[in-house]
Design goal:
Elements (H helix, E strand, L loop, with lengths): L11 H15 L9 H11 L2 E3 L1 H6 L6 H4 L3 H4 L6 H16 L3 E4 L7 H15 L4 E5 L1 H13 L6 E3 L4 E3 L20 E5 H5 L4 H6 L3 E7 L22 H9 L3 E7 L9 H11 L3 H4 L9 H8 L9 H8 L10 H10 L18 H11 L2 H4 L2 H5 E2 L3 H6 L1 E2 L4 E2 L5 E5 L11 H18 L5 H14 L1 H12 L7 H6 L2 H7 L12 H17 L4 H12 L2 H4 L1 E4 L3 H15 L5 E4 L6 E4 L2 E4 L2 H9 L5 E4 L14 E4 L7 H7 L11 E6 L6 H20 L8 H7 L3 H9 L24 E3 L1 H8 L10
Parallel strand pairs: 1-20, 2-8, 2-9, 3-6, 3-7, 4-6, 7-8, 12-19, 13-17, 13-18, 14-17, 18-19
Antiparallel strand pairs: 4-5, 10-11, 14-15, 15-16
Helix pairs in contact: 6-7, 16-17, 21-22, 21-26, 22-23, 22-33, 23-26, 23-29, 32-33, 32-34, 33-34
Length: 759
């Protein structure tokens, strides 16, 4: 029952009646007590006071909660979780002391973006310089959306030509130089502009920043990585070169990636090297031992230990010297040496200034310093789902996260699909085509891989791909733009694709035969039958389901078939690129914004979503309990990203179900077989599979299985990131009643880069 008391009569009799009515309801024996958080929030609101920006700045330690507790993440969502608040608080505190320098390496599904967004918000409000966010192109719009929808703040994105604000308003541009005139304090750009060597780079490097945030930062890497890499100077790619330069021009920098190590720990050291430019707190000054990667990595990996000689050990400890809050021994030694918070390097001679009690404290921490207190641990924050599900919050007696288990289907070979004869023949024609192509172009192996995998996705996708090849307009038709997946788009940049424009007569004939086979048999697609079986017969639809494919063609074909034939009474969400998303009902697609689709899922109006990998980033589907992979992605990391859409904070199910569909003896199946023996081990080490394993697909497709196996086996059995990097504590922000003026906050954040500092 919902009973609302509404009155305008202020007479004593009316007030008495209302009080009497309220007391009767409040004290009713069937009344249910309010939840603690509701009582807490009512109390907070009752005592709420508003402060202006200058009042907040003048506080000795400005309270982040004053900025956050009234944002949509609290008012409309689930709030911030303990591990999220821990990182935000730590990053902001360090920013106030001179600058935060962190790698945020949380596992997928733990809310990495919101931690970065809130950290950026606090730094933007406290400083007088711009905040720059650098993200992969598919995540740029997600970033702007989450800033607006979760944090309630404006931002602008650079689309390569001009700035566009959170309302879609485009700002006039005079060319690349206009990058300096972002209309919002927080500006978001695509990594692709940096990797392509865009003209904006020089303008960006001419500015100074309050904070630079880099999402998917593992893409900034050295070009050559092997066991000898620690002994060799890095040859950085374009993104890494840019970050090395801009690091010295920003107060704070946060690099975010779920895979800080993909093949070799040198990759983590490289990231710390980026953070260290212009900042001695990370790896110390130019003469620090921690600047020598070849000596550092064995210590971090616990393969070697710091010398027990006090003078040698002191050289490892003093440069950089740990902060006072890391250990009471460090605090005592800092006090003895009269070091300030901003001092990160002690001199070699400072050892002689220490008294006997100081030396006793020193010896205690030095014995295990290389393993427990090294700069890697200090500047890399990594929490896994398993850690949060198994660590008890002392304030509640419950785990920090509710455990959500995963049950996999389709992993056993007996559960894989048999490749039907018409698919086998189509495969054969595709392979013969690529063999002919290989005689005249270098990228035939790549095309073979792509073609076979599209056929393996759905027959319709394979058919459309071949039609595009025959039309010699591979990248120009509407279907192909999104039918060509992102990772393939990246790889195509390295392939010589210009040569395939003019196909030979025998090549054309093979493609035509392949297309005909797929066209004649696409209604018999075994994957459709399997999807229908799980959705309807096994009740997955009742739990809510998201189906992933790499290809928009496959998404639309499957949605149309289901909507027109077997699920005619069901609304089906299509989640892909912004212009291709919508809701399908009885075979008709109504275009709709992705945000509206998200809201429909939250309201329980959609039980089925079918999407491309655009849905694997930035889509929170805690209300859905099952997931079907129609095909397996080129980049194995995406499997974890897909899973992270439903195995995430706030999932209402205790167990989620995941089905991987693959044809027996297909390219996918062969790669899966090679990976399966190491899959659990690799996942346990990295939290997700290194994306460099994408090379294995090409190797398998071209018959080089041994090369693929070598690549997989070369993944190191050990890495430096374990539970020592897990940090979390519960912080009370929810009871904060002192709130920063919303109007003033928005006014400050709407200040353009050219006007910051002149308010």
């Amino acid at each position: 029952m919902n009973y609302e008391l509404v009155w305008e009569d202020e007479t004593p009799e009316a007030i008495a009646w209302v009080q009497e009515e309220f007391d009767a309801l409040w004290n009713h024996p069937q009344a249910i007590p309010l939840a603690d958080f509701v009582v807490q929030d009512i109390n907070r609101i009752a005592n709420r006071t508003e402060i202006n920006h200058q009042q907040w700045l003048k506080e000795p330690e400005p309270n982040p909660a004053s900025v956050i507790v009234e944002t949509p993440i609290y008012r409309q969502e689930l709030g911030l979780w303990a591990h999220q608040k821990f990182f935000i608080k730590k990053a902001f505190e360090d920013h106030l002391k001179g600058g935060a320098r962190y790698i945020l390496a949380d596992q997928v599904g733990l809310g990495k973006t919101v931690q970065l967004a809130v950290s950026g918000l606090l730094m933007a409000l406290h400083g007088d310089k711009p905040v720059l966010v650098i993200a992969p192109k598919p995540l740029v719009l997600q970033w702007q959306g989450e800033l607006k929808d979760l944090v309630g703040i404006p931002s602008a994105i650079w689309n390569g030509r001009q700035w566009i604000d959170e309302n879609g308003l485009e700002y006039p541009s005079k060319g690349s130089e206009s990058i300096k005139n972002c209309p919002r304090r927080i500006g978001i750009i695509s990594q692709g502009l940096i990797t392509s060597g865009s003209e904006i780079i020089d303008f960006l490097l001419a500015m100074k920043y309050e904070c630079v945030i880099v999402d998917e930062a593992h893409r900034a890497r050295r070009k050559k990585i092997n066991d000898n890499s620690p002994n060799e100077p890095a040859i950085p790619n374009n993104l890494m070169s840019f970050l090395l330069e801009i690091s010295d021009r920003t107060k704070s920098m946060i690099l975010a990636t779920a895979t800080p190590v993909q093949l070799h720990p040198i990759e983590a050291w490289d990231m710390l090297d980026v953070l260290s430019r212009g900042n001695e707190q990370v790896l110390g000054n130019a003469w620090s031992n921690w600047r020598r990667a070849a000596e550092v990595i064995p210590i971090v990996m616990n393969e070697e230990h710091i010398s027990e000689d006090i003078h040698d050990a002191w050289n490892w400890l003093r440069n950089p010297f740990p902060p006072a809050n890391e250990h009471r021994s460090f605090r005592a030694i800092r006090q003895r040496l009269e070091m300030q918070d901003k001092d990160y390097v002690a001199s070699g001679g400072d050892l002689d200034k220490l008294k006997r009690p100081d030396l006793t404290k020193l010896n205690k921490v030095l014995s295990d310093y290389g393993r427990q207190h090294n700069p890697f641990i200090r500047h890399i924050v990594r929490r896994t789902r398993a850690y949060l599900e198994n660590t008890i919050d002392e304030s509640t007696g419950e785990p920090y996260l509710k455990p959500v288990t995963v049950k996999l289907f389709g992993e056993d070979n007996r559960e894989s699909l048999e490749l039907p004869f018409y698919c086998r023949e189509a495969y054969q024609h595709a392979e013969e085509f690529c063999e002919l192509l290989g005689k005249r172009i270098r990228s035939a192996g790549l095309y073979k891989t792509l073609l076979l995998r599209r056929i393996g996705s759905t027959m319709f996708s394979g058919q459309k791909t071949i039609e595009n090849l025959l039309n010699k307009n591979e990248r120009e038709t509407e279907n192909t733009i999104e039918g060509w997946s992102e990772e393939e788009d990246e790889l195509e940049n390295d392939a010589d694709t210009s040569e395939n424009r003019d196909l030979a007569a025998d090549e054309i004939e093979l493609l035509r035969q392949c297309r005909q086979l797929l066209e004649d048999n696409r209604e018999k697609d075994p994957k459709y039958k399997e999807v229908k079986k799980y959705l309807i017969d096994r009740g997955w639809l009742e739990k809510g389901c998201i189906i992933f494919s790499q290809y928009y063609d496959s998404v639309m074909w499957l949605a149309t078939q289901l909507s027109s034939e077997d699920l005619t009474a069901e609304k089906i969400g299509i989640y892909s690129g912004e212009s291709r998303s919508g809701v399908m009902y009885q075979g008709i697609l109504k275009r709709m914004a992705r945000e509206e689709i998200k809201q429909m899922v939250r309201r329980g109006e959609l039980r089925l979503i079918i999407g491309t990998d655009a849905a694997s980033e930035g889509l929170n589907l805690q209300k859905l309990g099952t997931l079907i992979n129609l095909d397996l992605p080129w980049n194995p990391t995406r499997l974890e990203q897909r899973k992270g859409r439903i195995q995430r904070i706030g999932q209402i199910q205790d167990e989620i179900w995941i089905l991987n569909l693959r044809y027996r003896d297909s390219v996918e199946d062969r790669v899966h077989e090679l990976l399966s023996s190491r899959l659990e081990e690799i996942h346990g080490l990295f939290g997700q599979i290194p994306d460099v394993l994408q090379d294995a697909w090409v190797n398998v497709a071209t018959g080089e299985a041994e090369e693929a196996k070598k690549l997989i086996d070369n993944i190191r059995p050990r890495h430096p990131f374990d539970e020592r990097y897990s940090k979390v504590e519960n912080i009370d922000w929810e009871s904060c009643s002192q709130i920063l003026s919303e109007a003033e906050k928005l006014s400050l954040l709407r200040t353009g880069w050219d006007r910051i500092g002149r308010q």
